[in-house]
Amino acid sequence: MERLAGAASLEDLRGIEREFVGKEGSVSGLLAAIPTLSPDDRRVVGKGANLLKRDIQAGIDQKKGELEAAEIAAQRAGGDFDATLPGAPQTRGSLHPLTLVRREVEAIFVSMGYSVLDGPEVELDYYNFQALNIPADHPAREMQDTFYCDTQGNLVMRTQTSPVQIRAMERLKPPFRVIAPGRVFRNEEPDATHEHTFHQVEGLVVGEDITVGHLSGVLKGFLRQLFQKDIEVRLRPGYFPFVEPGFELDVRCPFCEEGCRVCKKTRWIEFCGCGMVHPRVLAAGGIDSEAWTGFAFGFGLDRLVMLRYGIDDLRHFMAGDLRFLEQF
Ligand code: FA5
Questions:
Q1: Is the CB of residue 205 below 6 angstroms from any atom belonging to ligand 1?
Q2: With a 6 A CB cut-off, is 132 part of the ligand 1 pocket?
Q3: pLDDT tens for each residue of 186-200
Q4: Backbone torsions φ then ψ of 275, nearest 5 degrees
Q5: DSSP symbols for 273-325
Q6: Mean pLDDT in the chain?
Q7: What global pTM score does this model have?
Q8: pLDDT tens digits for 234-287?
Q9: Which protein residue's CA is at the shortest distance from atom 25 of ligand 1?
């Protein structure tokens, strides 16, 4: 302990550490000799040597802290220490492109009088399928290969944001307009335009005398605001059990003139499913389908982000590669 008290530098301290408790140190030598002693001596010497080692190590650690603090204090007291110099720069993270575009989408719909709703990602089969006019044996279930969360099949990772339609109808009194952005899951093999975990934005409007004209007008207006220009779209018949009539809305591929990998050489990109809310779905939500009509749509947010920033593969979104993420 006297030697420790006299240590004037970290270098001195390292010497003391080597001499006593290092691999070749005297206390280590003592410990190594224990197996050669008689059983009684072993116990006494073993205990003593271990205590000694512990005390010496504790003394070294304490002295090390003192010497380090003194070293910093000496540096600060020196003439060339400048407390006003800036610290080491911290790199700032950035928002994920999906978050950026989701916020833009929300702001546009809020400006059109919509409320933004949320719903559970682990959903009851009832909301994800049955209340949306997709009973247990319905072939439409094949369209969305589902991750089931229990053996009875009551709980699913939601395959779409449409269950929020039912939850909204249960809670809100018509007329109302809502959107519900969120994460959805399907058992799919990823490629440039498909992921197993992706994002949708659901829209639902319930009111008096709502028509397909309102539906296409809202979606065109939304796209115009988002892209700050007219975007060519087309409506073609599409089947979803919860709307009647149902449509697919496609947008022009912004990447090519004559077909590419993203649009699979069709020059159109599937943008969303939509249609007039089926009377059975209104009824499941507790809404009188004689008095009220509505439209609904559900688009893929990931594909919208691809269009917005000219990204040609949506697998980048989940890859966690900073070279990609730092560009936003
Ligand atoms: C639906 O999920 C319906 N719920 C949409 C809807 C809502 C129809 C309301 C009618 C009324 P669909 O399976 O086509 O439909 O998916 C909607 C959109 O999600 C697609 O247009 C596409 O943009 C996107 N999408 C679908 N599967 C994937 C996937 N694996 N990866 C990324 N985006 C996907």
A1: no
A2: no
A3: 999 999 889 999 999
A4: 160, -175
A5: EEEEEPHHHHHHTT--TTT-EEEEEEEEHHHHHHHHHT-S-TTHHHH--HHHH
A6: 91
A7: 0.75
A8: 999 999 999 999 999 998 876 788 888 778 899 998 889 999 999 999 999 999
A9: 300
Question: Which residue's CA is the nearest one to ligand 1's atom 12?
Answer: 273
- Joined tokens for residue 5: 């008290």
Bridge partners of residue 115, in order along the sequence: 178
Q: How many CB atoms lie within 10 A of CB 71?
A: 12
Count of beta carbons in the 10 Å neighbourhood of residue 306: 24
Whether residue 28 sits in one domain with residue 104:
no
Q: Same structural domain for residues 117 and 234?
A: yes
- Give the tokens for residue 148: 């089931």
Atom of ligand 1 nearest to the CA of 144: 13
* Tokens 């002693």 -> residue: 37
Distance 249 CA to ligand 1 centre (A): 11
Q: How many structural domains comprise the chain?
A: 2
Q: Which ligand 1 atom is nearest residue 304's CA?
A: 23
- How remote is the CA of residue 184 from the centroid of ligand 1, in Å? 10
Residue nearest to atom 10 of ligand 1 (CA): 274
Q: What are the φ/ψ torsions at residue 272 (nearest 5 degrees)?
A: -160, 160
Q: Tell me whether residue 92 is in a domain.
A: no
Domain for residue 84, yes or no? no
* Residues 121 and 57 both lie in one domain: no
Q: Is the peptide bond before 135 cis (omega within 30 degrees of 0)?
A: no
Range of the domain at 36: 2-77
Mutate to test the pocket of ligand 1, among 117, 165, 198 (most ligand atoms within 8 A of CB): 198
Please work out whether the CB of residue 247 comes within 6 Å of at least one atom of ligand 1. no
